[in-house]
Amino acid sequence: MTERVAIIGGGKIGEALLAGLINSGKPVRDLVVVERLSSRAEELTGDYGVRVTDDVADAADGANVVFIAVKPDAVDTVLQVLSKAEDHGDEERVTVTLVAGIPAARYEAALPAGAPVVRVMPNTPMLVNEAMCAVSPGRYANDDQVALTVRLLESVGKVMVLPEKHLDAVTAISGSGPAYFFLMVESMIDAGVSLGLTRAQAAELSVQTVKGAGVLLSESGLSSVELRAAVTSPGGTTAAALREFERFGLRHAVNEATTACADTSARMARRPEVEGSRRASPLAVESGIDSQ
User: What is the DSSP string of the chain?
Assistant: First the structure.
């Protein structure tokens, strides 16, 4: 079966999904993007040859899957249109949200009764096809619809299916996790400069080191504990550095930071109108990932 996919939101995340689907072999004729900024629409059309419209109902017409990749403050406007858009496709339309902080129940309440909704927590490595996406089905999404969502998202990285109750924890680990990583690299670069390296030298050393370490952890089959032990000689230089990390409470800091992130995510879900209230240009920007 060939699915028609509509992507509502032509920002960075919408474009990343679009590029991933095309690179995985999805025909451009089966894709449509909603983007209200004419300059951005022209850019997407020129780069990908995809049809771009500023009409949500037009994009949803005949689509099997509708991805919502807008800022949180634009969600209600999108849902108002989708709730009235007729479904002319052969299969029931699935609404997949990539927006942070808004539970599936809010979509289900706005859409026609029984409409299948799938909530996704992606992260910014989606921009380089290395996403970690957590997929949580709503009350009415069946196994086939979840499997379809997973298959489409696998074009931009790895996918995990789990209950929505775990998405606050997912936000704290993978959703916001890239920012923790970037802060660590930033700190390593600053430390290298203080030790006499130029900033360019420290940056190249730090970036390649963490990149290589990530690939090694992903592909070696060894745990992080095993790999850390392998590079740590008793009484050596690495041991001296790790001792300082422990002395200053790295593990405690990570635990406190992720707990704070999860708690904030839970509060956002209870008060969705707060998140994004100061944001502009609905539908013209990417999903709520950058708000985490």
Answer: -PPPEEEE--SHHHHHHHHHHHHTT--GGGEEEE---HHHHHHHHHHH--EEES-HHHHHTT-SEEEE-S-GGGHHHHHHHHHHS---SSS--EEEE--TT--HHHHHHHSSTT--EEEEE--GGGGGT-EEEEEEE-TT--HHHHHHHHHHHGGGEEEEE--GGGHHHHIIIIISHHHHHHHHHHHHHHHHHHTT--HHHHHHHHHHHHHHHHHHHHHS---HHHHHHHT--TTSHHHHHHHHHHHTTHHHHHHHHHHHHHHHHHHHHH-TTTTTTT--STTSS--GGGG-
Do 154 and 92 belong together in one domain? yes
Q: Give yes or no: residues 154 and 192 share one domain.
A: no
Q: Are residues 56 and 181 both part of a single domain?
A: no
Residue 278 structure tokens: 């100061």
Please check the confidence at residue 201 and state whether its pLDDT lies above 60. Answer: yes
Mean of the per-residue pLDDT values for the chain? Answer: 91
| pTM for the model | 0.86
CA count, 13 A, side-chain hemisphere, 165: 1
Please report whether residue 119 resides in a domain.
Answer: yes
Question: In the prediction, which pLDDT does 270 show?
Answer: 78
The answer on 131 and 186 residing in a single domain is: no
Q: Which domain holds residue 188?
A: 176-248
Judgement on whether residues 133 and 31 belong to the same structural domain of the protein: yes
